[in-house]
Amino acid sequence: MADSPIDKHRAAHLPWFVAVAQILGLTSVVITGVWMGHYRGGYGWDGTSLQFNVHPLCMVIGMVFLYGDAILVYRVFRNEPKRITKILHGAIHLISLIISIVGLIAVFQFHAKSKIPDMYSLHSWCGMLTFIIFIVQWVMGLTFFLFPGASVSLRSWYLSLHVFFGLALFALAIGTCLLGIKEKLLFSIMSTYSKFEPEGILANVLGLLLVAFGVVVGYILTREEWKRQPNPEEQALSMNFKNLTEGESPDSP
């Protein structure tokens, strides 16, 4: 069925919202880099605070920016073959996972060398919960949607859960970043934070940008007219796959 002129007009707005999301996401990454690089002394891998600085940068890049881009793939590449879109979605998530692992290693090694206790704060609890669910979500998505074997009915059942947990994880990742920003500021500049310290203002702006990035991505994902629609070839292949795996005849309802 052809799209109405109104739907086509609304679809034309999608690139603008995607561009805004990219600007917000990239700006968040740059500000995180400036915060850790300029105000916190830079980066290193020597067990000192310079190694800790790798942690927030990696988590903002991996668990927020790249994660948000991965879930936007099905909107940005609405007219591409579905399998290519699936591979790109999974590949971006894999890169996000690798970068996030580097960030986690950085902070745990820093804590070990500095003899700082692990996993006692709300930030660390939320962060570890997010990371564990992210791994489970990625493995389940790979198993159900990229590799053959799962039936159509099983994929349909899991799809709604996959979408829900994907959005929930994105929101949880941003929330965890906000907790981390607040925690870092209280540890670093607690005595001057209330005096509108430039570092504190920069970190507050970072928090607002992360929230704005999440809101724009969420808006794009929830717009019905921007959802990816299967093309006729994909629908035919889906029906053939269903017939082969579930033994249904072409005339079944």
TrEMBL record:
GO terms for cellular component: chromaffin granule membrane; lysosomal membrane. Its cofactor is heme b. The keyword Translocase applies. The chain crosses the membrane at residues 12-34, 54-75, 87-110, 122-147, 159-181, 201-221. It catalyses: monodehydro-L-ascorbate radical(out) + L-ascorbate(in) = monodehydro-L-ascorbate radical(in) + L-ascorbate(out); Fe(3+)(out) + L-ascorbate(in) = monodehydro-L-ascorbate radical(in) + Fe(2+)(out) + H(+). The keyword Metal-binding applies. One of its GO terms (molecular function) is transmembrane ascorbate ferrireductase activity. Keywords: Cytoplasmic vesicle, Electron transport, Heme, Iron, Membrane, Metal-binding, Translocase, Transmembrane, Transmembrane helix, Transport. It is a multi-pass membrane protein. Residues 20-222 form the Cytochrome b561 domain. InterPro entries: CYB561/CYBRD1-like (IPR043205), Cyt_b561/ferric_Rdtase_TM (IPR006593). It comes from the Eukaryota. It is found in: Cytoplasmic vesicle, Secretory vesicle, Chromaffin granule membrane. Transmembrane reductase that uses ascorbate as an electron donor in the cytoplasm and transfers electrons across membranes to reduce monodehydro-L-ascorbate radical in the lumen of secretory vesicles. It is therefore involved the regeneration and homeostasis within secretory vesicles of ascorbate which in turn provides reducing equivalents needed to support the activity of intravesicular enzymes. PANTHER family: CYTOCHROME B561-RELATED, TRANSMEMBRANE ASCORBATE-DEPENDENT REDUCTASE CYB561. This is Transmembrane ascorbate-dependent reductase CYB561. It comes from Acipenser ruthenus (Sterlet sturgeon).
